[in-house]
Every structure is written in C-alpha cells, then in structure tokens.
Amino acid sequence: MKTSRILISLSLLFVFFTIAPIFAEGEEKRTNANLTGQVLSQDGESIPFATINIVNTTIGTATDETGKYSLANLPTGSLRIKAQYLGYKPKVIEIQITEGETKEVKFELEEDVLGIEEIVVTADRNEKNRKESSTIVNTLTSKLFNTVQAVTLSDGLNYCPGVRMESNCQNCGFSQVRMNGMEGPYSQILINSRPIFSGLAGVYGLELIPSNMIERIEVIRGGGSALYGSNAIAGTINLILKDPINNSYEFGAGSGLIGLGMDESGGTAQDHTVNFNTSVVSQDNKTGMAVYGFYRNKEPFDANDDSFSELMELNNTTIGGRIYHRFDTRDKITADFFNIKESRRGGNKFDMPHHMADISEAVEHNITTGAVSYDRFFREADKLSVYVSGQNVDRDSYYGANQSLSDYGNTKDFSYTAGAQYNAVLGETNLLLGIEDNGAWLTDKKLGYINEEGTYVDNRIVADQASNTFGSFMQYEFDLSKLNVSVGARFDHYTIEDESNGSSTSGDVLSPRVTLKYDILSSLQARASYSQGYRAPQIFDEDLHIETSGAKKVIHENADALEQETSHSYMFSLDFNKQLGTSFLNLLAEGFYTQLDNAFANEFGEPNADGTVVYTRVNAEKGATVQGVNIEANFVPSSKVNLKGGFTIQTSEYEEVHELNETKFFRTPENYGYFALDWDPVENLCISSTGNYTGSMLVPYNESVLRESDPFYELGAKIRYNIKINGAKLQLYAGMKNIFNSYQDDFDSGINRDPAYVYGPTSPRTFYFGIKLGNMLD
C-alpha cells in the first residue's frame, strides 16, 4: 500500500508543478497604467496597512504608515478596486483605466466595529463576507491574542463560544480542545484550509504553534465535514498564517512567573519567550515573502510541593515563512514552510536521565511542514486552486517510571494532502467542485535495551499503520430573495492498514450538508443546518500519549470489531447586529444537537502483572447525544470600549451507562463561558480584563472513582502602552492571569499518583511582562 500511495502522491506533485507553466501567460504586458491613492476613515484619519486588491485578479498591495498606496502596470479596461481593513467594512470602487494613464482613487471606509462584514474563507472554502455566509464563522484575531496574552494557539481558544481548552495529564501537559462538548479528535484542525496537521502532531499540537505565526483563527462549530472530511464532526479550527502584503517587521520578548504567591508550591516557574515577524514585498508587488520565528523556555512547576511537576518543562523553537509569486494578473503560486523543534518533560528529577527519574514523561518533536498552492482565475470570477502539502514528524519519547529502561520510543509519521477545487460563479449562484487525497504512514516502536539479567531486548513495533482517504466534494449555493441556500456533499473512500497485526479496514462514506440563511431583517439573520460526519476506526492522537505513574501505565487500543462512528448534526441560530445611537451591539444565540451512532467509548481494563492498564475503544451500541446552546455578545458603547463574551449550556451523554456505570461524558462541564474587555482611556494606552468560567464536571480518578469538580472563575488583567518612534511603535505591557488563583487544589501526589486526575484552568496565577517593537502594532 505504501508504494501505491507514494506513486499517487508523486503523480499529484508532477501534475501540480506542471500546471502552473501551462496556465501562466509569461511576462505581464507593460501597460504603464498606474493607480495611486489613500485609505481614510470617516473621520479623515489615515488607515495604515489596509489591503488593496483588484477584484478577480491576484494583484494587491497594502497602504503604508500614512495610508497611501500605489499599483503599477495594471491591466486596462474596467477594474474593481477593493479596500479592506480589520474593523472597517470592505469597499469596492469601479474605475476605467487606459494604457499610459495614472489614476488616483481615495477610499473612505466605514467602521465595522463588530466585525460582521469581515472576509472569511472557512465557511465554504472560498472568500466570503461573514454576514453573507450561510454558516456562522467566529474569528479570533491577532488583536484578541494581544488582549488575552496568547503566547500559543491554545491560549486563545477559550475565547470563542462552545470552545474550551483542557489539560489531561499532570506529567507531560497533554491537552486538547473540546468543541460543543466533544473531545479533540471530533474537531478538524486546518492550516490555511488544509487538513495537514497529523494525529501525532496533534497530541501536543495546540501548544506547539506560536500565536505570532497566525494571522487569524476561523472557527466553525459543526457542519464542516461535508467539505473538510472526517473528524469535522464537532467543528473546524482553521489557522490562517501570516501573509506578506507589505514591508513590515515586529519583534517581541516576554517573561512570566507561574504560580506567583502560591503558598504550597514554595516558588515560581519562569516562562520566557522571544518572537519576530518580518515581510518584504517587491516594488512591482509580484513577489513577497514573510518570515517568522519563536523561542520559548518554560520551567516545570510543582503546585503541591511533592517534587513532581504539575506543569511540564518546555523548550520550543519555531521558524517558518511564506512566499508568493504572481506569473501574471490572474494567477499566483504560494509556498509555506515551518519547522518546530520542541522538547517537553514532566515528572521529577529533571537534572537526571529519564530512566533515572521516578517518573518521566518526555517527548522531543521535530516537525517539518511544507505546502504549495496555485490559484488561477478563469472567465470573470471563476477560480481554480491546486494544492499539495506534507508534514513529517520525528518524535523521540519516554513514558516510564521506577528507573525503567524499556520505555524509550521513537515514532515516525508522514502525512500529506493533495487536491484541487474549482469555484464557478454562475450568475447569482456558486458551484464548488473538488477532489482531495489524504494519506499518512505512522510507525511507533519501543527501543531496544539491556534488561536486569544483562540480556539485550530488541526493538518492538507498537504500531505500524498506513491510512488513505480519497474524497470528492461539491457545494451549490443560490439565493431566493432573502433566503440563501447551500447544499453540499462529500464522498470519501478510506483504507486503513495496520501491519503490526495484519488487519485492514476500508469504507465508503457519503457526508451531506445543507445550510440555510434567512434575512429576517437587515440586522437579524436566522441560520439552520444539517450535516453528517464520521470518524474511521484508526489510531487517534490520544493513543500516542501514555499516562504513567509508579504503579501503572495506561495505554489505548481499538477493539477488534470497532466500527466507524457516524454523526448527525443539527444547528439553528439567530444573529442580531445593530447600531444603537453611537453604540454597536451583536447578539448570537445558537442551538446545537448531534446524534452519534456507534459512538466511540472506553472500557477500562484491569492492571496486568506489569501494572499496565488498557483502555479499549469500543462502540456504544445505542450511541450518544450532544446538545446545548451557545450565546455570544459583543457590545461597543464607544470607540474607547469593546466588550465581548460568550456562554455555553449543554449536555453530553451516552444513551446507556458505559464508563464507570455513568452515561455522561467525562471532563465536560454543562456550562462554561468567557469575557474580554478592552478600554482605551487615552491615546496609546489600553487596559484589558479577561475572564473564564468553567462549570463543575465529572472526572475519573484511578479508573474506579468518579469525582465532581468545583466550578472555577479565572480573572485576568493587562495594561499596555505604545510609544511612537520614527514611524514604528514600541509597546510595553504587563499583566496577570488567574489573579485570584482559581486552580485545582487536590492534585494527586507522589510517585503512584493518577496523572490524568486533572481538571479546571490550565495554569495558576501568572504574572507576565514584556516588550514589542514594530511598524504594525495595535
């Protein structure tokens, strides 16, 4: 199977790299048709770094620090020029331009303080105005990351309705995101709309990705599976990486003190970060390059003074970039690359080798990701996209206790995505067609060692799995007066081969999706959707994490007869956006209901002679149901104050008793929420306050007891001040997370502790401070 999959991927690469020269039309004809102008707010203030695009072409630029822009050598005739910037409504001006002519076009943008008309891409794999989208798309921007002091992706995800980050291991800090009450594997993580983040990378992936490489995050709850494939049952999280649109730079450095003022821990752990971003664009705007880097060094933290860490030691170095080139006015090739080197360790005796510690859970990642995409406009507005991306993960690991030599391991994982999609504009309707091939090979082994008798024990293969999913998808969208209708479907054929036990599984899945949007009023939209999704019975991310204590080790396995899980998801929402005098208000109420057939559940085994406990993944015959309501509010009473918040009320349970004779999903609170407040009392000064509420939940302890946690209220505050320096800004900031230290106080302790008995906020009280310098700071 590996040979055939390699041949297919090489064929797709060959097609990809030969298609661009075929479509490219050579050098652009020099028309000397030029465009200059400026982008202003309604108050006459210049808007720096606003983007300027020629609609249905690949031509674009950005304004400088004074809001001015210029474009040279444009195609002649009728052109539609679009200007847009975060916090303002996009505006399009149509002009006529002839050869040798220079025109000036000035834009005056209207404020969009609620962000309801920003451009999103995740709803239907194509750029679209958020208000016009038939699917609710939540956007987490760099401004929000700054407000909540999000160092990595995981720090910012709590500030979106229905989304909650949780920690699942005292030792190594294994974490996952829950959407609408469902575990991490039910959500699809995308990078630039491609499902390239593998299951192995996803074990710790949300904490691996630094926020400074992300332009924004687009979140869709439910309904994404028809376009994005398996695992998009709970929703889709799309990471849009920074794009080179102008000449810019930013540098930052910060430090944190974890556990400040906690009596039991006896000290604090330091957390230091350094990051940079820069981009360069050629004078003719045909070529651009962005480069980013990140370094982090975090000490382990012991919350209960038992010499074992509750927060792991972490070192992370990330470097990456994006480059594009326009062959002519209607096509563009873009390449992305990033490498993450990370090491993390939890347990005790950090100054000794892993096998000399009482407990050590440690991994070293070397993750290399590359992607190439080619975009070409046809006819007036049709667009073809062809893409290939791959990710290679090399992981060294140790999950062991009591000076064990048998627990060193190595995992190698390669995954790829290759596909093409064509978006056709047919009058007032849109038709999207696409094919996609996703493949992965994973080999996990335990390394050889010399046992107590002096005998060499050879390497042992734990998992050797290859998977492939070939899918085709379509979506058709049309308007009927105030009603927007979008119908789509995806057909997948998947094959999973496990060479370690000689098993093979395959299946054919049709996943339909229907979404409706009705404009009740210009300020009130109703949306409804139905979608079907699935999860194939393969190795999942949490299988590759092993919980370790001195008395036991927990590993995950699939039952021999494990069948595919299928979901039926229904959603309904009301979205209200209104200007009330000088104030702006957005209210969203969203109901969701998901039925899981053959839902995956765990059966806890008994410890064997070596203390190993097996969690066997089985199908819950009567399925499971997840239902609830997400509420979101965004209130802007003036240009100096912005308040947003969200709250979720839900239930998640099996139809029959399962784990520990319980029907409810574990670690899933029935209510949780957040708020974020920005206040600009004077120019260049911003004061922020943030908060998270986590309701009580059921948490298993030692696979035999269920405990109900207390609710938690986290409160944070931050102050930042900008100093203008020769066209750039110097920003000084300081703040505190979890001010009142609302943190778990009954961690299990000692060598025989249950490391999975973790709940509530992911970190205790933390004081932080830092500095930024750049020409694009908020």
TrEMBL record:
Membrane topology: Multi-pass membrane protein
InterPro entries: Beta-barrel_TonB (IPR000531), Beta-barrel_TonB_sf (IPR036942), CarboxyPept-like_regulatory (IPR008969), Plug_dom (IPR012910), Plug_dom_sf (IPR037066), TonB-dep_rcpt-like (IPR039426)
Gene3D superfamilies, A to Z: Carboxypeptidase-like, regulatory domain, TonB-dependent receptor, beta-barrel domain, TonB-dependent receptor, plug domain
Subcellular location: Cell outer membrane
PROSITE patterns on file: TONB_DEPENDENT_REC_3
Keywords: Cell outer membrane, Membrane, Receptor, TonB box, Transmembrane, Transmembrane beta strand, Transport
Domain TonB-dependent receptor plug: 131-236
CC terms in the record's Gene Ontology section: cell outer membrane
TonB-dependent receptor-like beta-barrel domain boundaries: 290-739
Listed Pfam families: CarbopepD_reg_2, Plug, TonB_dep_Rec_b-barrel
Name recorded for this polypeptide: TonB-dependent receptor
Lineage, opening ranks: Bacteria, Pseudomonadati, Bacteroidota, Bacteroidia, Marinilabiliales
